Amino acid sequence: MPAEAPKSGIIATLDPSIRPQDDLFGYVNHQWVKDTEIPSDRARYGTFDRLREQSEQAVRQIVEAASSGTAEDGTEERKVGDLYASFMDTEAIERLGSTPLDAPIERIRGTKSVSQLLGVAGELARTGVSGAVVFYVTADAKNPQEYVVYLEQAGIGLPDESYYREESYAEVRDAYVAHIARQAEGLGFEDPQGFAERVMEVETRIARQHWDVVATRDAIKTYNKHTLAELKERAPGYDWDVWLEGLQAPGGSFAQVVVHEPSFLEGLSTALQEIGLPLWQDWLVWRVVTSLAPYLNEQVVDENFDFFGKTLSGTPQLRERWKRGVGLVEDALGEAVGKIYVSQHFPPHAKERMLQLVDNLVEAYRRDFDDLPWMSPQTREKALDKLGKFRTKIGYPDKWRDYSALEVHRDDLVGNVARASAFEVDRELGKIGGPIDRDEWLMSPQTVNAYYHPMMNEIVFPAAILQPPFFDADADDAVNYGGIGAVIGHEIGHGFDDQGSRFAGDGSLTDWWTPQDRERFDALAQKLIEQFNQEEPADSPGTKVNGGLTVGENIGDLGGLTIGYKAYQIAQETAPAPELDGLTGDQRFFIGWAQVWCGKARPEEAKRLVAIDPHAPMNCRANVARNLREFQEVFGVAEGDGMYLAPDDQVRIF
């Protein structure tokens, strides 16, 4: 019997009416874009979303089986089932109506000073209602052997501070005020229009202090370490002691903090002193309403979706209740579900194949560093040291999270949400003073995504992303290297992008580059910024990409694709690729890259993402290939073609 032909791994329907020389994204994805309607409950839809649907369905089976109530009390399976059941019990939810808001609103209205209000804000932050300041805990960027609290700006309801000041968002601002008023009226508030205008007044003042999206991604500017005493001195109008008491923060947990945006805290401190207590009370009441809205009765849920789903993102229809219930369980008990998901959906040989891919990507970077014209020998030595210290996590954690302290009741949805938040607050702050947990994952195995953690110097690939078109353990190498290989290269590349390159191999925020190398690198990054400033999302023509916001991810894409291709060539040294489906291996590599970015978005969502998303639009990500001379050679791109870039205009960082 003849041997079975290898799978190409190409799942896209190529469009012969579009030449890859003119538009790689269109050649690979246009047929799908033309034939596919975005589901009515989504603002965008594509490769990631299709895999997320598969993962969501798998998790649905797990949580619905657990919700039968037959599991033993106190077990993780019982907690998963009871949490899901509490969300799905619409009769109980409708019977309660908006009454879960009564107690927190009464606490807010009963405060007699801004200081007291901050105490209540701390209590609410513990239960999932974010205030003007939010925190998280991770390794100290200047001392990655210790944990520290990081403080970030918050307190606004619109996606970004630019929504409060730019004329292009004037209609959205008006719609937001109208939404607050409608929600307030439905809840029986006095003077709902006045309430809405007062909330908007406070949020606008808060937004005025916010740093913009480009500044907030600067690793140097956002590292500002303070003692608690220094924090109090910097923002005296914010009663930190009262807020921390409300948060139930363990003693000493905020003894050292890293402030992301110091001027924001200073401006907030002044605003707390200048704006009257009644306005701050209205603002915090609204924070409670908008935070708990997804867990209340249908009227509140629908009004919440009308603005945040329809107006902001153009999504016509609210997601089915079971999908939202799965999302809640994922947020609160993700790794409890992940244990079962991995046992059912992640074969061991997939991990083995991935490890080989990672080894080849690391080797490709090692060879690449040897040839980089802009990197000096001194910097190259340290870059190779950092590369040698990379840690790779694939599939699922070696050590699962312990949920024994989390209490879940089948008949108390809002209480479950509050307890899950408090559990997470205690878990995070409980890290302070302890050793760094290098086994911790920041994503569950069923998450369709990947990440690089600069302070841990690690790349992480959850099980759910290791599926076609990213990865097919049984397919030909070409598309695997163009898909998950380039994604691996992207994540490794984050260790050497404009911000990740500021962290050394031990995870510390250290300037390990020579000044000349940094200058040359920054010049290349600026060239990429200017290139992407001219790009537009296919779904919102006329809206320009923010090259400064997306530069880190664009460097990741460009580096990932470049090194992914180099790693593919390494793999070919021992097993040359056959021609499949009339395409060479090199052509299939670039097709594999482009089909990863298959997708489309509603115009409103495409415009919203340009304002806040550090990732470029999907068509721009696929077509970053035009910077590679290898792509031009493989497809015979010539001057005058849409994908042509003159050699001097191409950006090659790695």
UniProtKB/TrEMBL annotation:
Which Pfam family, giving just one, matches this sequence?
Answer: Peptidase_M13
Cofactors demanded by this protein: Zn(2+)
InterPro entries for this protein = MetalloPept_cat_dom_sf, Peptidase_M13, Peptidase_M13_C, Peptidase_M13_dom_2, Peptidase_M13_N
Q: Per its record, what are the GO molecular function terms?
A: metal ion binding; metalloendopeptidase activity
- A single GO BP annotation from the record? protein processing
The record's PANTHER family line, in alphabetical order, gives: FI17812P1-RELATED, ZINC METALLOPROTEASE FAMILY M13 NEPRILYSIN-RELATED
Record-stated family: Belongs to the peptidase M13 family.
* Protein name in the entry: Peptidase M13
Source organism (scientific name) = Metallococcus carri
Organism lineage string: Bacteria, Bacillati, Actinomycetota, Actinomycetes, Micrococcales
